[in-house]
Amino acid sequence: MGDAIRVAVLGGAGRMGQMLIRAVGESDRAHLTGVTERPGHAWIGRDLGEAMGGAARGVVVSADPLEVFAGADAVLDFTTPEATLENATLAAQARCVHVIGTTGMTEAQVAALAPAQRHAVQIRAGNMSLGVNLLTLLTKRVAAALDADFDIEIVEMHHRHKVDAPSGTALMLGEAAAAGRGVRLADAADRGRDGQTGARTRGDIGFAALRGGDVAGEHDVIFAADGERIVLRHVATDRMIFARGALKAALWGHGRPPGGYDMLDVLGLGG
Fold first, then answer.
1. ∠ CA(158), CA(164), CA(168), 5° rounding?
2. Is 200 annotated as a binding residue?
3. Which of 4, 168, 245, 260 could cysteine-pair with 103, CB 3.0–4.6 Å?
């Protein structure tokens, strides 16, 4: 494997976990050294390849994240907010790159990740794709150029299995729009409309979440004024773009100084 880095996948049996495993397997710059699952899961103690219905791969699925972190240069984490907080502490102890694609985290949970950044590279993003991160930059720029006569609405659609709403990507886009407007998203967000809600509040950033089928991810940022609309859109047709982006982040982070980073840093678009 030469200079290939050692990568572990957390929550390997999940939809995203299996895609992360596939992305690492397709890379000549990384090799898989560990996979975790929650205690009691049917995969625990089994060879990963056999658990996935294929040939043995020499990696046993573990319920002990400490063991997995100790043997990795980077971990890919698309789990749950609670698990991610625990994983951040382990990543700091192991001094390994912690790539976080977990969505549904509260502001308090995101803030609680900060102490680990003093000891390890932590790369967190609501979406790991190049296109979405470019869309984030465009959203911020357009929001800064237009005043509150343009209402901002963010509409997202995902597959029927997604458990959080709005999506992490939608919230990332909302943060970009709020930054462009010079406001806090927490103060401007309108995340639910039902019944007699009254007229739209000027300056609000609205969200709508659609769920159905096998949609990988669609996001529209709509700037609507009297007589005209601007629509910025990203459509994902293959969820592997997120897995490949996460691996790209791990490769980029290996050898960098500890700290908190995002995908704009990985893509050279930060600052």
1. 75
2. no
3. 168
